[in-house]
Amino acid sequence: MSIVYLSRRATFCASHRLHSEKLSPAENKKLFGKCNSANGHGHNYILEVIICGQLNPKTGIVMDLTKLKKIIEDSVVARVDHKNLNLDVREFKSLNPTAENMAVVFWEWLEEALPKDLLYEVRLHETENNIAIYRGE
Amino acid sequence: MSIVYLSRRATFCASHRLHSEKLSPAENKKLFGKCNSANGHGHNYILEVIICGQLNPKTGIVMDLTKLKKIIEDSVVARVDHKNLNLDVREFKSLNPTAENMAVVFWEWLEEALPKDLLYEVRLHETENNIAIYRGE
Amino acid sequence: MSIVYLSRRATFCASHRLHSEKLSPAENKKLFGKCNSANGHGHNYILEVIICGQLNPKTGIVMDLTKLKKIIEDSVVARVDHKNLNLDVREFKSLNPTAENMAVVFWEWLEEALPKDLLYEVRLHETENNIAIYRGE
Amino acid sequence: MSIVYLSRRATFCASHRLHSEKLSPAENKKLFGKCNSANGHGHNYILEVIICGQLNPKTGIVMDLTKLKKIIEDSVVARVDHKNLNLDVREFKSLNPTAENMAVVFWEWLEEALPKDLLYEVRLHETENNIAIYRGE
Amino acid sequence: MSIVYLSRRATFCASHRLHSEKLSPAENKKLFGKCNSANGHGHNYILEVIICGQLNPKTGIVMDLTKLKKIIEDSVVARVDHKNLNLDVREFKSLNPTAENMAVVFWEWLEEALPKDLLYEVRLHETENNIAIYRGE
Amino acid sequence: MSIVYLSRRATFCASHRLHSEKLSPAENKKLFGKCNSANGHGHNYILEVIICGQLNPKTGIVMDLTKLKKIIEDSVVARVDHKNLNLDVREFKSLNPTAENMAVVFWEWLEEALPKDLLYEVRLHETENNIAIYRGE
């Protein structure tokens, strides 16, 4: 029985403002700089969802790719694509939408929708220079 | 005397909402779909500025690259990076910030700042799938 | 009135065999080498469709992007995606499916479906090294 | 003694049809959709081979890169490039050529050809969205 | 008879120092900054050679791709790959190896080797941000 | 408390010559081939620095990104960008500047500058085909 990892990529466009309610305005400005600008900015996010499981010898796959695509679409992309994360997405109304927090929230959304113990890693590319990675640890 | 083209890439992150004041809310919704969502969304834009001119036989360049970088930075990037285009950028307060309009506005900003007759083409990548191109025609 | 170009990218996966009915088997083998192997091979093709038209001052666009996407999907992608070009696509049953011929055929399909005089260029990437470009000339 | 990982990329073009002999035609159609179409389709595959070993303090390398390139070329690329996986490659005549199965088969081919215990990971990109990863587990 | 453009990509690695014999040391330093540092630096160059010609109705190609690859390899890549441009390449011993000058020199090398009137454009990517383009004008 | 990984990308251009003082000229030539050419060659290197730490629930980050960028810039990029590694960088005057050795040296530079226990992985892309990875093992 082979253990195989499968990575599936999706993309979405969203706006956000980095701002923590637990910091003062001055602290927010100092820590997040131009990412704290009042009216927000945005990104073309790239999401990689990596699952890990036993290779089914009958089918040659770890999981039905059509189902995986639909789960990523329904659990994550539909909730954030073409949205303002701070204003339109319940989880980020009081949680700072950093790439790190987004990776953790997306993990939770995906884990709920995927078959048990399949999810291995969530990689969220915010720009071509920044990637946040979460493995449920 | 050789004519050479030089393309210089820059990137910026911004949010926008596609919405034309000259259309009704229903028309905006119909034409722009989720790009019209009320609180906006955003992109990692890639801007390519292409100049065209005579190759200087003494230096081997068309234009001082440090100056070109600074002009792109000052004329375009500084005005739009980490901004909400509709709310923060004067030109787009009444002009719909489509990739097409952005390419035209950036051309105007660049043409004013560059030596006469050097600017050849502005390419604005909104996503990995959409590029607007303007040549001043 | 500004003239703006808009490039829209689509992708599809297909298999093909380079083989011209107008050449002998030996000529085919000599000219196309391993691309002539009997059972075919395949590619992840990238198609860029570039339209050119007047920027509508009311909407800020050249053409409704949703319509352009649908035309590319219906006119090209649906006919070739996950197909064997030589066996499954009428046009290539007797026409060698080179990147060059594909670009010309896709131009014809697109020109028929798009509003008159909008189509400017078809770029077909066969691999990361090879691109065929057709402008209807 | 430092442990260093080295990743080497190769590319090849092949066609395949997802179809398992252990499933009925209806099950194959349901599970693989258009990837099951009778005459096959194809991809530009990207293969990343990652080795892991001690850094040789005399040479500054983990393994002679020319040898690694030749092993990847001889063990994998020469067997699959410009081939129809289902018809031309012995291993996939009765094994469904999914990205997952391909990663496992390539691991076996590479492990046989590489010095003992060097191979760490095989990453096979089927499209820009799908990657199968195998670590010999 | 259709006119089709075909772009072929090649890569090479080289070092260079931007320095013009026609400028004083101070002028060189001012104009080229860190690119003028005494011991040079280097790049992974990407070269795109675009030819333009009539589509041969018998073969479905503009030019034998194997021949085009060999001409690019022999005329350009073999002369510059893994070389120090200023010290190892005759043309750049007295000519500043800017991307602009390289594009012009490569055009001359390619034009000599290619069938008459086929060469349309040379694109030389020095980094992901800088591209020099020459069309023989 | 969640453990999150954050990857930050930087780029630099440098020249080098693969040559080990501990090998004879013939051994160097045999092992490194054209990478051993006397006057060197160069690359556009891509450096990915991956840190791993606890997600701060107050700020939503693992580490101040502005500080991380500055550390990468000061500790690595400023020392190697637009340099000849063999001649201009103290560490590589007697150490062969292979991608493997560079990854180890960069790890040491970064570990000294970063808060304790944050550094997880250094990935150095020498070309689009070669990546050296070091995790401090």
* Sheet with most strands of chain A: 5 strands, mixed
Termini separation of chain A comes to: 26 Å
* Largest interface, counted by CB within 8 Å of the partner chain's CB: A-B, 22 and 22 residues
Helix content of chain A: 25-40%
Helix/strand/pairing category of chain A: alpha+beta
Q: Judging from the principal axes of the Cα atoms, what is the shape of chain A?
A: elongated
User: Radius of gyration of chain A from the CA trace?
Assistant: 17 Å
Helical stretch tally of chain A: 4
**Average pLDDT figure of chain A:** 98
Count the beta strands of chain A: 5
Biggest sheet: strand arrangement of chain A: 3-1-2-4-5
pLDDT < 50 runs, ≥5 residues of chain A: none
Notes on the protein architecture:
6 copies of one chain form a homohexamer. Chain A has 137 residues and is an alpha+beta fold. Chain A is 31% helix and 31% strand. Chain A contains 4 helices and 5 strands; from the N terminus they run E-H-E-H-E-H-H-E-E. The first copy, chain A, has helices at residues 25-32, 65-80, 85-88, 99-113, and strands at 3-16, 41-54, 83-84, 119-125, 130-134. In chain A, a hairpin with a 4-residue loop joins strand 4 and strand 5 (130-134). The longest helix of chain A has 16 residues, at 65-80. Chain A is elongated and about 60 Å long. The two termini of chain A are 26 Å apart. The model of chain A has no long low-confidence stretch (mean pLDDT 98).
